Amino acid sequence: QMPGTARHDREMAIQAKRNLSKTTDPVERLRLQCLARGSAGIKGLSRVFRIMDDDNSRTLDFKEFVKGLNDYAMMIDKEEAQEIFRIFDKDGSGTIDFDEFLITLRPPMSNARKEIIMQAFRKLDKTGDGVITIEDLRGVYNAKHHPKYQNGDWTEDQVFRAFLDNFDSPYDKDGKVTTEEFMNYYAGVSASIDTDVYFIVMMKNAWKL
Q1: Tens digit of each residue's pLDDT (9 = 90 or more) over 88-112
Q2: Alpha-carbon distance 65 to 82, whole Å?
């Protein structure tokens, strides 16, 4: 876990629970319910939807949408679910594209925040192929300082893998982190940090940018 992110994560989750009682906007309520589970909450919901998308169409109809929300134990009634579905089903086709759904559900971030997140991503993505892997990390992340490496519990690769697992989709850890997964993770972290300046300083320190 990166310096400070665990604490931000907790603060953000507490804040989200608090705001839930105040908001009536159905999309915001769903967003806050996800964030109440921490930075990976939105990623977790996307994973549930992915499992349900049997035909790999990357779309969901209303029945699948409701089942996904229930499987993820979201407290949402049918009327509210219908309202959310309508908002996302922009063309009225009766299905929603879940990449679009997730982007809308992600807490909004300023361009300044997105840019610094992408800088960190590019620094880690040594090979420049848009995916961070163990190979990439060998060049940029020193595993030898890790306590579990020092006491012989973990190999260098295990340290790298544990590091990638932070950003990887929680229920589908494949040891590869895409731009989208990295962004989703930091959208969660970002939700707990009020000012762009502070967020940027945190990222610069964490990644030596």
Answers
A1: 888 889 998 877 787 788 888 899 9
A2: 10
